[in-house]
Amino acid sequence: MSIMNTLSNLWDQTAFMNLEWGNYVMIVVALVFLYLAIRHGFEPLLLVPIAFGMLLVNIYPDIMADPYVDAMGIEHAGGLLHYFFILDEWSILPSLIFMGVGAMTDFGPLIANPKSFILGAAAQLGIYSAYFLAILLGFNGKAAAAISIIGGADGPTSIFLAGKLGQTNLMGPIAVAAYSYMSLVPIIQPPIMKLLTTEKERKIKMEQLRPVSKLEKILFPIVITIVVCMILPTTAPLVGMLMLGNLFRESGVVKQLTETASNALMYIVVILLGTSVGASTSAEAFLNVDTLKIVALGLVAFAVGTAGGVLFGKVMCKLSGGKINPLIGSAGVSAVPMAARVSQKVGAEADPTNFLLMHAMGPNVAGVIGTAVAAGTFMAVFGV
Question: Do 309 and 117 contact (CB within 8 A), yes or no?
């Protein structure tokens, strides 16, 4: 009898006895994400930890449990990934990601061609269009703002703004949508780019960028930090960390900090952020109508942002007498450097001798700054 009770207790404790149909759906979604990441290489650094966090929380929901005090007054710790997720809510991990991006990125193309700022700004059209569309779909102002940042194809900023605006209940769907669309940049963008440009425009070869001096590269992060943060102080955690990482890189006197920020620290943060974001997608939180709306709004925002960058690239092409390839405008979304690589790829398909990567990096970096500014603008509007 004791053996039977033991076996019965063991069976009752298995996940099979505690999961609902929604958990199984999310487990399948997690497996699909893992397949896309491992088999097809869709941004595995992002999708593998996100998908595995999704898998864990839907098999063992308590891994995200809040700490609590029982009836006997005994304190119980929360689940492992609960503490990772707190770092998202406090904006620590998104800000550290920005520092790593800054340490890894050469801002030279943006400095050499300041017009890229305009293309980066044009690509933010997706954010503001999604904001008003979200309002029409019934979301309140803060929720709409948090959702709309998906249009910048910037996962860390999406998480940062959702936390700052108190939309932690939507953080999981928003973050997963943002990172999913970042991963799918090579699939989503090319059809839009080809639809809005002619083959002649795609074949345009741009002049080589001018050399950028070391002094310019050192001054750039300092000046941008002062100007942007004086106008929108709420952007300091993102823009400040982005520029600090870049100053590490360009100053040339803190090689160890540059290497740490761009390698070890960056990848540690990606693990913590990815698994915690994935773990926020329990079936209860994810399988609802609002999530479907968020995923749809994110796609619309991303598509409109891509189109906005390309269309403004066409305008600049006309104004420059055909010297600017409109394809680089699509890189104005802030998925660095994926969007710039897509611009290069689509241009090379039209003319294999065309090299647009460095030109596209200008709008790409400008898009990172632009998305952070958009987030800061929303925080200012809502008095956060």
Answer: no
